[in-house]
Design a protein that fits this description.
The chain has 333 residues and is mostly helical. Helix content is 54%, strand content 6%. It has 2 domains: 3-121, DNA polymerase, domain 1; 138-320, Intergrase catalytic core (hpI Integrase, Chain A). The strands form 2 sheets. A two-stranded antiparallel sheet has the order 1-2. Strands 3-4 form a two-stranded antiparallel sheet. Helix 3 (36-55) crosses helix 5 (92-111), helix 7 packs antiparallel against helix 11 (214-225) and helix 13 (273-286) runs antiparallel to helix 14 (291-298).
């Protein structure tokens, strides 16, 4: 290492830890090439650490001055935080998101030769056991899909949303990001397309193909035919059902729409947009589709994420074994 590099590293090492965070986020963008959503999450999670630093009057803390005791005290702080949503304490899984962001910052220091606490000194909390996913059966799904009115533009829009979520297994954010011209409505209508194959770029910039069923296509066509606006987004708000376009629906808007029709259809109140994604995957599994294929449909980078659906295959295999296995006919001695 030459003198110039050494002096640069020494200078960086004397900058307060929290002042490095903007450079870390730039590093995640330019060098690591992380998705904007991932960088946004790192920023949000590290903001909590900055809040704690300031609360403890540690604004001037240098990277090499961070100790195990600081980490321990920060973990206590996290464990005592309350969720803004329900007032409950942060779950272990959620606390780990904050710790993972801090570990990523320490890994960055190592990459930059800035002396700091090793990232592996931050152990993650043991997560709660994964709960079984919640999904709707076909009868419940049909009730939900038929709940929106076919006489208003918002009803037609909402029917298109519900049909699309179940047909494709899209994450709600992916559906919200769709543009009207991606669907090519005129072509779909003219050629009476039975199934639309559409490339989608989801989490981590991973691109996959999703499939819109004829029901979903028909619902989208009926909705789009009623629109007279020039808005780019596929799913938008309308002012008091007048048909006057407002703006692209947010993911929060999608959640409110689902809740509305869940109540109308008399379904479990904890049904969310993600429940439809779970229902999509569960339906495919029940039809005999293997997990690797489901992984591709859902856009999971790791098969371990898809294995949350094995509760379906496990029960199905058990039922088949009990029904068909010849051993049940053997006489006991």
């Amino acid at each position: 290492m030459n003198l110039r590099d050494y002096l640069f590293i020494m200078n960086q090492s004397n900058i307060p830890l929290i002042k490095h965070i903007p450079d870390f986020l730039d590093y995640c963008d330019v060098i690591k090439g992380l998705a904007s959503k991932s960088i946004e999450n790192y920023d949000r999670f590290l903001a909590q650490f900055v809040t704690w630093i300031k609360k403890e009057n540690l604004d001037a803390l240098k990277p090499h001055e961070l100790t195990n005791d600081h980490i321990y005290r920060y973990r206590i702080y996290l464990s005592r935080q309350r969720s803004k949503k329900d007032g409950e304490g942060l779950k272990k899984n959620t606390q780990n998101y904050y710790l993972i962001a801090l570990r990523a910052l320490l890994i960055y220091f190592t990459k930059k030769d800035i002396l700091s606490l090793p990232a592996d000194k931050i152990d993650l909390a043991k997560e709660e056991k994964t709960k079984k996913v919640k999904f709707l059966n076909l009868d419940q799904l049909e009730k939900l899909l038929l709940s929106p009115s076919a006489t208003t533009i918002t009803g037609l829009r909402d029917r298109a949303i519900l049909e699309s979520l179940f047909s494709t297994g899209l994450r709600v954010g992916e559906l919200a990001a769709l543009h009207r011209d991606q669907m090519n409505i005129a072509y779909l209508k003219k050629n009476r397309v039975e199934e639309l194959e559409l490339p989608i770029t989801g989490k981590g910039g991973y691109t996959r193909v999703v499939f819109f069923s004829k029901r979903a296509i028909d619902a989208i066509i009926r909705y789009c035919e009623k629109r007279t606006d020039m808005e780019k987004a596929l799913f938008i708000n309308f002012k008091k059902d007048s048909g006057e376009a407002s703006k692209r629906l947010t993911t929060r808007s999608f959640e409110r729409i689902i809740k509305k029709y869940v109540k109308i259809a008399g379904l479990p109140i904890d049904t969310t947009p993600h429940t439809l994604r779970h229902s999509y995957a569960t339906d495919l599994l029940q039809q005999g589709v293997d997990l690797r294929t489901i992984q591709e449909f859902l856009g999971h980078r790791n098969i371990a994420t898809t294995q949350v659906y094995t509760h379906v295959t496990n029960k199905r295999l058990r039922d088949i074994h009990q029904k068909f296995h010849g051993g049940k006919n053997f006489k006991t001695q």
